[in-house]
Amino acid sequence: MHVPDGFINAPLSAATGVLAAGAVAVSLRGARRELAGGPAGPGGEPGGERTAPLAGLVAAFIFAVQMLNFPVAAGTSGHLLGGALAAILVGPCTGILCVSVVLLMQGILFADGGLTALGVNITDMAVVTTVVAYGVFRGLVKVLPRGRRSITGAAFVAALLSVPAAAVAFTLIYALGGTTDVALGKVATAMIGVHVLIGIGEAVITALTVGAVLAVRPDLVHGARDLTRPRLKLRVDGDLVDAPAPAPEPVAAAPRASRRALWITGLVTSLVLAGFVSFYASANPDGLEKVAADHGIDRAAEEHASADSPLADYGVKDVSDARLSGGLAGVIGVGATVVTGSAVFWVLRRRRASEAS
């Protein structure tokens, strides 16, 4: 759903740029609290020591999985947006920053998503998806039975709804500042319809990833920090009654070594997905590209400012072998994203620590 240059006029592009900048500024403050939160690890290890590295890894993983377009309908594909996954794993504010880092890397290095449309893309793909997904997730967690299955189920529904929400947001933005004269009703119907299907893929990926992290390091899942043990039953005069509710207990932290193992496993997985599996991704246009082509929106598309980048279109310039070119570009992208994301979150964690001292 990366919006290219030219789809949205200059005034609205500037307005969404201001909105996106404000959202990122608020998220920077909120992320400092999220990265410092969470239960202490073994030996009193601060929560930020564990969650800050995970945030950089989440950004790299989202970058990698976004390269894996999957078919959703005849001639159309979809890919992960990542807002729900990031929000549930590392928190909504940190999640907005994760997706924003990914969009920045894609726009600058790979000419994916217009630079003048960066505000539109951050607003739509980072802010809207994260806010909608986390709101749905928290609402479901409050009413569902406490447990890991509920966390995974809530993640599935939240991710599913976040994608058509982004489609609605794009339609509204286009209604206000679109550069072509098209029937907005048809565009809205097409965008929402195809992105409901894409949302199913997003939900599956999100639920599987959250479930995998819950299985090995539940203490690292931001959305599971309020998880408590099931209410015990006592038999009194032959009847079962609820035992007094225990104080909420965070999910027990796993040994420090498993954090390193999880980080390494996640990074290797991201590298394999971007460097190898991405070659087999669907070549069909994604939901927005398909709708834009069908309804003439793409007539106003402009050439990307980074079209001559050595990594434009996810290939390495002057490398003739398509498999090698795409694989190298994916590996470089994962590396650049994990370094940039980790640096951002490390600085935020350090600033929070210095304020607390």
UniProtKB/TrEMBL annotation:
UniProt xrefs under Pfam families: CbiM, PDGLE
Domain PDGLE: 260-350
Chain ranges passing through the membrane: 12-31, 51-72, 84-110, 122-141, 153-176, 188-216, 261-281, 327-348
GO cellular component terms, A-Z: plasma membrane
Bilayer topology: Multi-pass membrane protein
Subcellular localization, as worded in the UniProt entry: Cell membrane
Predominant localisation class: membrane
Keyword list, A-Z: Cell membrane, Membrane, Transmembrane, Transmembrane helix, Transport
Annotated protein name in UniProt: Energy-coupling factor ABC transporter permease
